[in-house]
Amino acid sequence: MKKAIILACILVLTLLAACNDPSKEDTKSKDENTTDREIKIEDAMGTQTIKGTPKNIVVLEWSYAEDLLALGIQPTGVADLDGYNKWINVDEKLAKSVKDVGTRQEPNLEAISRLNPDLIIAVKYRHEDILDNLKDIAPVVTFAPYSEEATKNQYKNMKEEFKKVATIVDKTEEAELAISDLEGFIDDQAKRVKDAGLEGSKYIATQAYSAQNTPIIRMFTGNSIVSQIMERLSFENAYESDKLEPYGYSEVTIEALQNFQEEELQFLYIVQEDDNIFENQLKGNPVWENLSFVKNGNTHQLPGDTWTFGGILSAHVLTEQLVDAMVEE
Amino acid sequence: MRTTLQKSIVAVLTFGGGTALLFLLTFIHINQGNVSIPAATVIDAILKPTDTLAHHTVRILRLPRAMMGILAGGALAVAGVVLQTVTKNPLSSASTLGIHSGTYFAVVASTVFFPVALFGNGVVVAFLGGIGTFLIVFILSGGNRASPVRMVLAGMIVTFLFSSLTSVLQIFYENETAGLFLWGSGTLIQNDWSGVQFSYPFVIVGFVVILALSFKLDTLTLGDDVAIALGQNVNVVKFTSVVAAVLLTSVTVSVVGPIGFVGLVAPHIIKLIGYRKHVPLVIASFIWGGNVLLMADILARIIDPSFSELPVGAITALIGAPWLIWLVLRMKKTQYGEENTSVIAGKMTAGMPLRVILPILAGLIVIVLFVNLASGNYGFEPVLMYQAFFGDTNDFMKNLVLDLRLPRAIVALTSGMILAVSGLIFQGVLRNPLADPSVIGITSGAGVGALLTMFVFGVSAFWIPIGAMVGSFVFFMVVMLLAIRAKFQPTILALLGIGVSAFGSAIIQILVVQSDLGVAAALTWLSGTTYAKGWTEFTHYLLWPIVIIFPLIGLRISILDTLSLGDDTAKGLGLRVMSSRFQLAFLATILAAFSVAAVGAIGFIGLIAPHVARLIVGPSNRRLLPVTLLIGGLLLLVADLFSRTLLAPNEIPSGIIVAIIGAPYFLWLMKRRS
Question: What's the mean per-residue pLDDT of chain A?
Answer without folding.
Answer: 85
